[in-house]
Write a structure and sequence with these properties.
Blueprint (H helix, E strand, L loop, with lengths): L2 H14 L2 H8 L3 H15 L4 E3 L4 E3 L1 H22 L10 E7 L1 H18 L3 E7 L13 E5 L8 E8 L1 E5 L1 H7 L15 E2 L10 E4 L4 E4 L6 E2 L2 H9 L5 E4 H11 L4 E2 L9 E7 L7 H14 L11
Parallel strand pairs: 3-4, 3-5, 8-11
Antiparallel strand pairs: 1-2, 5-14, 6-14, 7-12, 7-13, 9-10
Length: 307
């Protein structure tokens, strides 16, 4: 094991605050990870990590060493990237996360072409509706829709996805078509919450400057885009979601939903890429993010098209 490998092991242990967690992510035995950190501490003549039965925490020297070693590894990756021009292949593994809808309806459809151009590159794709922790879970990049939380991560905005209000034809035949906001009192909304245990604020609409909410009833609350869309198809209520998702699903299922109250749409939903705060981005990550940006950007430029 060379010194660069040792530095990478230490960084992962420090970020995860766990020897076993680092071992799992790196695909190494626990003993190998522990020995690498011990040898690094012996070489430096200082303790980098404080170990207890419950947690692993960086010492003062550990924090200083972590920041400097992070810069060193980034510089080395940038140096390697200098010699990848001229048609040399990108290699290595990328770990990325995005919503299941974005993965299924947009990214996976085009990913074969990307990997055909970079056959030595491996992509681990996490697709769920929960918000992962990029650093602690070892992701290189995450694609986020919706407002971003304040963090030390670098955000690369792509644009905004147009959102629409939808209902199934069967639901509208049973309950009628709402024409005004006042009509919503006689309708049902499928409520969406990432964490179950509460209800959504209600019907969301944007007047061009400010977002407003109208409280609505509804007997179903879901926590995934799959069940959200399926509940609407089943006639359990109306939903609000990005237009691109509705059009992609409708084209595949040949069972279009109907847009309602187009003048009372939610605010366009921002979509961004997030990655760790680094002075240099690895060439494979930079290439992937450029491709992902180019793939999603046209979707943010759609106007008021029919569902």
């Amino acid at each position: 094991m060379n010194q660069l490998d040792t530095l990478q092991i230490f960084q992962r242990v420090a970020e995860l605050a766990s020897f076993s967690g680092a071992a799992r992510q790196l695909g190494l035995p626990n003993a190998t990870v522990s020995l690498a950190v011990q040898q690094l501490e012996q070489m430096l003549g200082t303790r980098l990590l404080q170990r207890t039965t419950r947690r692993v925490q960086m010492t003062g020297d550990g924090e200083a060493f972590y920041q400097r070693s992070k810069e060193l590894l980034d510089d080395f990756e940038s140096l390697r990237a200098m010699f990848r021009s001229g048609g040399k292949a990108l290699t290595g593994k990328l770990r990325v996360d995005m919503s299941s809808a974005m993965a299924r309806e947009v990214v996976l459809l085009e990913l074969p072409d990307f990997l055909e151009r970079h056959p030595q590159l491996e992509v681990e794709l996490s697709a769920s509706d929960r918000r992962v922790d990029l650093v602690s879970e070892g992701f290189d990049c995450v694609l986020r829709t919706g407002a971003l939380d304040d963090s030390s991560l670098v955000a690369r905005p792509i644009g905004h996805l147009v959102q629409v209000n939808c209902a199934s034809p069967a639901y509208l035949a049973r309950h009628g078509v709402p024409r005004t906001l006042q009509d919503l009192a006689g309708h049902k909304l499928v409520h969406y919450r990432q964490t179950l245990g509460g209800r959504s604020p209600g019907w969301e609409w944007f007047d061009g400057k400010e977002t407003h909410y109208v409280e609505m009833g509804g007997g179903v609350t879901v926590n995934s885009t799959e069940t959200y869309y399926a509940a609407c198809q089943a006639g359990l209520g109306m939903i609000q979601l990005p237009l691109v998702g509705v059009r992609k699903r409708s084209a595949l299922a040949q069972d279009s939903l109907v847009e309602v109250l187009p003048e009372y749409r939610p605010a366009p939903m921002p979509v961004s890429m997030l990655y760790a705060s680094r002075r240099h981005v690895p060439a494979r990550l930079a290439e992937f993010m450029d491709w992902l940006h180019a793939l999603i950007l046209p979707l943010t430029q759609e106007g008021g098209m029919k569902v």
